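USER:
Make up one protein:

ASSISTANT:
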Amino acid sequence: AGCGLEILLVLCGLKFSWSCPRHCICYTAPSTVSCQAHNFLTVPEGIPPDSERIFLQNNKIHRLLRGHFSANTVTLWIYSNNITYIEPSTFHGFALLEELDLGDNRHLRTLAEDTFHGLNRLNALHLYRCGLSSLPNNIFQGLRNLQQSCDCVLSASPQDNHLKFLQDDTFMDLHNLSHLFLHGNRLWSLNQNTFRGLRALDRLLLHQNQIEWVDRLAFHDLKRLTTLYLFNNTLIQLSGQCLDTLPALEYLRLNDNPWSCDCKALSLWEWLKRFRGSTSSVSCQAPADMVGKDLKELRKEDFPNCSPTVPNSESRAQTNNLSGTVNPSLNRGVVALEGRPT
């Protein structure tokens, strides 16, 4: 009987020493606070300071301020709220944070340059559908563990934001990033150093932008890239030399662009003839006698009076034994600085 009473006292002690915010559900091992879908306008008070996982998605929270969360947080989901402002120091000192989902906050227009500084363990950052029109130059500085971002999943996921321009070296420190999803923005050009530093990148989604110009060295650091989506942009031409810098490429989608299949398309045509991976159609929209034809199916004779292209010294034919259709698993909606995966 004495032993039973002792156990009861211990349990009661635990119950009264551990708090949980009203309308939330809390768990232990790991310490978790689940407050999703309760129409909270602010971060609820009383979140235990030892909480490791905090789920606040699908509320109406407007602001994130320093002191709302503790440095013990490992996982923080606060997607699908009404966040308009994040105090720059909100996450300062969060050395244990590994996953941060801020996606689907459509009124979040700007982020301070140091918002994510010091998050050395962060491996997943989601910023999809946030209405961001730009990213500060050093926004990802020091995030060397990031594998999924700009959802910048790692996936940097800035998709379905309003990004029009990316500063050179924005992703310079993201050496471990494997997925970068930038589709559904308003990007119009890709410069030589836009993707510098992304040496581990495997998948780059750039479809549904307004891209009309790609520097021939835009992808020069992406030696491990296997998947590149450029469909549904405004590309008229693309240099074959630009794609020569992608030795691991397996899946390429270029459809739904207004391709001009004149002499300027010769280097791309030659590259496509060498490529052994999977590509979409490349439908010609000009000149008039080429409209509706697939650039891949044209013959050398279709480029009369065109000067031969100068081969790139690093050019090499792709030898991957792949089927001629785009990998079906990649046709599903994947999201990053765009929309949360389902």
